[in-house]
Amino acid sequence: MADYKPVEIKINETDKQEPVHLDVLGMKLDLPNLNSTDLPIELVQMILILKSKPMLSDEETSQAMAVFLAYFQAMQPNFWNKLRLTDHAMEWLTGTVKAWAVESGIDPKALS
User: Fold this and answer.
1) Of the candidates 14, 26, 40, 13, which has an alpha carbon nearest to the alpha carbon of residue 78?
2) Global pTM?
3) What is the DSSP string of 40-87?
4) Quick check: 32 and 38 in contact, CB under 8 A?
């Protein structure tokens, strides 16, 4: 019979960052800090890519926007619906993600 070892982790609460607060299209968004150890699992892969490259290719930028749009659809459905119904939804999405990155301390040039 296999002997399973428990996984233990050490939580460092000092690395936790304050949430980011944005006002977009009249909606107040309380978003997790993208530099936090408490980053939502849905965004981990994309944030690691953003942090690893000074600039994203057009393809990577599109992938990033798709990840953030899916995040908003699942985790911020009211904002997603607002985006869905507004003119220039892609511009609002891009602007929101760039502001979120800036307020989180991530270089927004990666998303240009």
Assistant:
1) 26
2) 0.83
3) -GGGHHHHHHHHH-SS--HHHHHHHHHHHHHHHHHH-HHHHHHHHHST
4) yes
